[in-house]
Amino acid sequence: MTIPSNLKLTDLKIKSKAADVQTDAAIKKLLIASHSGDVKLTKTNSKNLTIKSESGDINIDQVKVENDNHLSSESGDVKISNSQFNSMQANSESGDIFISNLIAKTLKLNSDPGNVKINNQKATKYNQVIINSDSGDVEIKNSKINKSKIDTAGGDLDLPKTKINHSENSTE
Questions:
Q1: What sections of the chain are H helices per DSSP?
Q2: Which of 82, 94, 98, 129 is in the most buried spot, having the most CB atoms within 10 Å?
Q3: Chain centroid, CA 154 distance in Å
Q4: Positions of the region Disordered (predicted)?
């Protein structure tokens, strides 16, 4: 399912049983629920964004979200690149979370089990980063973090070119 970019929509709710969903339209409030398909957002602006995927990947590129967002995949990866969020919240059960070049004040990421990888080309500032990765590795590259709480139960924590002012990190 593709939503054309020339549509002017305020609220859009999409429920899909087994289709891929793709859009680059500007939508104030966007809710996508996919049972068995991938979700891809490109060049999209939204005030509120919710994506739930039961068995598919979530791919976000060049997306700007002003307010609330929640990305959740039960059996797939979450990939976010070249995007801007006020606060990023993502959950992946049985999948990995990949983030590159994301501007956000706060990151709340949960991957159970799975890896979390944040890779920025330029040093990127985050006020708060909260990551829970059960049985997965966490890598944060090229970031400046004010506060962090990172738990990698059963995994490694790698922080190349990353500075953290206040940390409560655990690698049990």
A1: none
A2: 129
A3: 22
A4: 149-172
Residues in the chain: 172
Which pair of tokens denotes residue 83?
């995007």
Q: What are the tokens at 145?
A: 């973090």
What pTM did the predictor assign?
0.91
Half-sphere exposure of 31 toward its Cβ, with a 13 Å CA cutoff?
3
First to last CA, the chain: 43
**Residues of the chain where predicted confidence (pLDDT) is lower than 70:** 1, 3-9, 18-21, 24
Contacts of 2 (CB under 8 A, 6+ apart): 22, 23
**Percentage of residues of the chain with pLDDT beyond 70:** 91
Name the pairing type of β-strands 87-93 and 64-65: unpaired
